[in-house]
User: What shape does this take?
Amino acid sequence: MKAPTQYVDDSVKGFITWSIIWGTIAVVVGILISLQLAWPQLNVAPYLTYGRLRPIHTNAGIFGWGIGSFIAMFFYITQRLTKTPLWSPKLARVTLWIFNVAIASAAVTLAMGINRTKEYAELEWPLAIVVAILWVLFSINVFMTILKRKEEQMYISLWYIMAALVGVTVLYVVNNLGMPLHLFKSYSAFSGTNDANVQWWYGHNAVAMVLTVPPLAIFYYFLPKITNNPIYSHRMGIIAFWSLIFMYLWTGAHHLLWTPVPDWIQTVAMALSIMLIAPSWGAVMNGYLTMNGQWEKMKTNYLVKFMIVGITFYGLQTLQGPMQSIRSFSAFIHFTDWVPGHVHMGTMGWVSMILFGATYYVTTTLSETEIYSVKLANIHFWLVLIGQLIYSITMWIAGVQQGSMLLATNPDGTLHYSFMETMIAIFPYYKIRAISGFIYLAGLIVFIYNIYKTFQKGENSPTAKAK
Amino acid sequence: MLEKNPVIFIILAFVVIMVGTSVTMIAPFKWINGPGDRIAEVKPYTPLQQEGRDLYMREGCNNCHSQVVRTLAADVERYGNGGGYSKSGEFFYDRPHLWGSRRTGPDLARIGLKYPDPKGAWHRKHMENPQSVVPASNMPSYAFLNQALDTTYSERKMKLLKFPYTQADLDDLKGKSEMDAIIAYMRKLGTDIPVKKAEAAVLVPAVLNNPYTDVKAVKEEAEAIYKQQCASCHGEKREGTLGPALKGSAKSDADLFKIISNGIEANGMPTFGAALDEQKIWKLVTYIKLDTK
Ligand code: HEM
Ligand code: HEM
Assistant: This one.
């Protein structure tokens, strides 16, 4: 018998650990800014004002927790699917260092007010270059592993992974083009309406290439692993894949409806956004159909719960998103709290649920042991689910209420409500949202404890001791 | 073949991504900011205004404030301040754009039209302590901007952005605080485009006769308008804060009407002729003259 391939997983562990740390920081800062919206006295020092903290929250969430975990999972999945050890373990360790330096510097510089203000591309040029280098090094490592693979077939997850590698590179580089003034300040290479159009081409595809494609790669890999059943249809996965990465790039202007961006771009974005329902639900149905005949696992296997609830939120997210892309609906909810409701169903419901499930799976596999406590995993599941639902639902109600008040006019065409009346109406929701944040944080702490204990258990197990 | 060759796969994925990108992101460069978009009256920022803009970015005001008035009637009514909806050409000098994605606070695209006071007294008070002006506001206090403005790069910025400037502009920066700069920026926003001001002046009828002499009949409505539009400068109880006390004003109805309709912009009293119709202004006049609560 051939010796099994020796996979290199120290960087997987490293990225998992650090992404959880950054994720926790993101959530804590999220709670702080949600409290500040209800109690402005909490803006105690310049570097702790809402305007400077909010980008720290989004960057720690998307880049620290999101990208950090994706890198861990991509290293893990790629090795298994190619039956090949990681191309360069050393490079992977360097990548982890750069990653931590980049995220830490991001937090510090954003607190200092060094901020390009373009959403999800806030980092000034020297840091943006570091992030780009980080991504390229990581991409090379994954790509070379695929190139040298021992397994001929490329499973659908590898397609998604490679698309993310190319997509993120193109998007990030273009939207960060600028004219440096000095080390800590630059001006965008594009101006006015052009800059807005480039920004949301980037912004929406950050959603596509960071918050959709990587979690899908992870979902397609882990669902069959967890359930011991192959994915329902590889072909359906492939069709959905190509149409997804084709359509997403047309839709950026659904963030710019009713603005000076040319009408035809808005209309195209609206149409393609609605068409996106098809490939998105292709993936959702693929997941559901894989579960056919084994739905009882929703009860018996805690990991299945995370995966299936995650893909369900993806399904809801990709119905709500197209709805928001319709001009008349956008008029109503754009700029209101509805949008944070949408955002957090995506980030807390879809992305994080999938990552929680994958992290449990990888932790137990690497530790060669069972989970420390299934009961705690279930408590974790319910706490984060309830926290997220309260968050999103209160924000949707707040958004609809404020949206309708802002648009309400008297018979003579004048406005019915002042801005402040619309704001005072949503204060109660801000307070409930802050509470939901604490519930979510409690769930997160249970998760961290469980993961920590599982790693510990692995280290103390007889097999580990024998090594 | 596809399933087997990662290099071909990557190239193919790149091509697929570039189709939508080319049509909706690259191609529009041909039209946007072209001659059809340009508005002659829109001027680049002065060194002080640009410093203010950079501070606006530093503080992340864009996380709560948008800067684009959509073509929706309610948007124009609420945030247009007589300037209508935003046109592409107005943003020609904006690097980056600051349209934003959230309106935790109001849109600021035309804020310069709303508070015309050259000394920026309203802004100063509001920035230092927003709750002193709008009690329920959740805007943070920016009193810490009362520190000297760093002008080391001011001239380099103008050169990099290719904005015209004079020595006088640079001299103007001397002794300025960060607060002065951000207020200069606020005061510039939305003021370049032609506005409906002229129309407002015409609105004053030849014979000024107040149709509302019974204060009881108008009090409720007038008080509501007053709280929305006037209280932040004249005080909740008309006792006078930034603007003079109005309670029981001794001025004639006609004079009051003219002041409210046309404003006294040089001294910080905005023009309300476009925002409020004649009937509402008369009701306010009647209400103001009331000298009890
Ligand atoms: C078919 C899929 C989707 C479509 C068509 C869609 C559409 C939209 C639209 C129209 C907005 C702008 C709302 C507004 O400001 O008025 C938006 C915002 C957003 N969406 Fe989605 N969405 C989709 C899926 C997702 C997914 C899966 C995520 C994952 C987390 C996500 C995350 C976000 C984020 C983070 C924003 C906020 C952007 C910002 O304003 O900063 N979306 N989406
Ligand atoms: C307990 C958990 C969380 C709380 C309390 C929280 C709170 C907040 C708050 C208050 C905002 C600002 C909303 C506004 O503009 O009015 C926000 C925005 C945002 N958060 Fe969170 N958050 C949490 C978790 C997360 C996580 C885990 C992620 C990402 C993985 C995330 C990503 C984002 C993004 C992308 C935005 C920008 C949304 C937009 O532009 O519309 N959040 N969050």
Notes: Chain A has a mean pLDDT of 95.
